[in-house]
Design brief:
The protein has a single domain, classed as Ganglioside M2 Activator Protein, Chain: A. The chain is 26% helix and 45% strand. It has four helices and eight strands. With 179 residues, it is of the alpha+beta class.
Amino acid sequence: MCSKRNSILSLLVILHLVLESTSKLEFTNVKCTSLDENFTKFEYCYLKSINRTYKYLSLRANLLNTPVTKIKLNFSLFKRFSGYRPFLYNMTVDSCRFLANTKSYPIPAFFYGLFSNFSNMNHTCPYDHDLIIDKLSIASVNHQLTKVLPFPEGDYLVETTWLAYDIIRASIKFYATLS
């Protein structure tokens, strides 16, 4: 009876440790590149650490030829294995169609959900204003990538390429570590 009780107790301790151990995502870098400076320029693009536990990402892309009525986004997920290698996703989405009906595109909707509450990119085309992601907290992204859809530990790169009228206009690379 005692060994059975110890086995159950050991199992409960292990289960507690597994449930209490949490993954942690941390932004390591962000790089914004305008590939057509007559169309868009980045006013700012940075990570800011407030303290050891609070870090956020902000960027502002100035659209110089508005209104923009045709936008596509290619996003690729890479994981670092002796350099960054493709991992799971490489998709191109018609952003205007996607924003009109996000439920029809589950994978892009998941990634859009990572930043939509911190952005002004929450409506369909046309866009006649600058595009902003303001103080995207690591805590909100961490919850999505560790609790909602767990990802394996490692170093990641999310590379986004923005096309307007089928011409590549900008590239944004988000680097993060999941530990």
